[in-house]
Amino acid sequence: MPDESPSPSPHNSGTARGWALIHGFMGHPDDWNALRSALMLGPRHHAMHALELTVHHVSDQQLAHWDMASEVDSLATYLRDLVAGSEGLIGYSMGGRLALQLAISHPDQVSALILESANPGIADPAERRARYDADMRLADRIEALAEQPDAVDAFLREWYQQPVFAALADQPQLLERLIDHRRRRADPASWARQLRAFTIGRQADLWPALATLDIPILAIAGQRDPKYAAIAQRIADTAPHAHALIIPDAGHIVHLEAESAYHHATEQFITSLPQ
Q: What is the edge-to-edge ordering of all strands in the sheet holding 217-222?
């Protein structure tokens, strides 16, 4: 990675060694505020570092070659140099894939993982290519929203009507808060950057490497998200020290849809690890 690459920015209250949190697609570090508060103010006072991704800050020239490997190298440098390493990583969806890639590429930097609604990869090359092509078309569409800000709300409502988010229909107030939060922080150019760099269609299949990852892993998914519940169970069956937790009455965004249960599960997992 070029020396001039910017570093990720922490959203935390200090630089103590702790857990690093990586948000999902279209997300923001403050998506983790509730979890950070729960764990930092809890009895064990866990340090929590919510990271802003470097992809938002690279030059256009760098962006042409920026991918998951570039991002995890930047994150690993930050964790090593600025917060003296991490106790572990927590990642949601796209952020979970980045966390897993970081653990595989920089095993000395990661001692445990919590993967929420995260897919280690697509094994079939044709399926992976089809996903890549679809995501590049979607990135073009998202980038065009910068010229039509009035269309952002409609796009977000369409986005959260996808089957993977179906459980949100039963929590309309949460859905409206989520859409409002995304709309107020809308940055279509950055969203398009994320998608082009980190689409699962461009990502290597991480399932084989997962089988050799010798660290504790908690794979979390919502019961009402059957695709990712099955993936969480497969992670538990694949990695030697992984187990799955399927949280009832939750869909894809478990940390929002079942906040209390998610915080409890995270606290239990972290406190069970060797100090």
A: 9-11, 48-52, 18-22, 86-92, 113-116, 217-222, 242-247
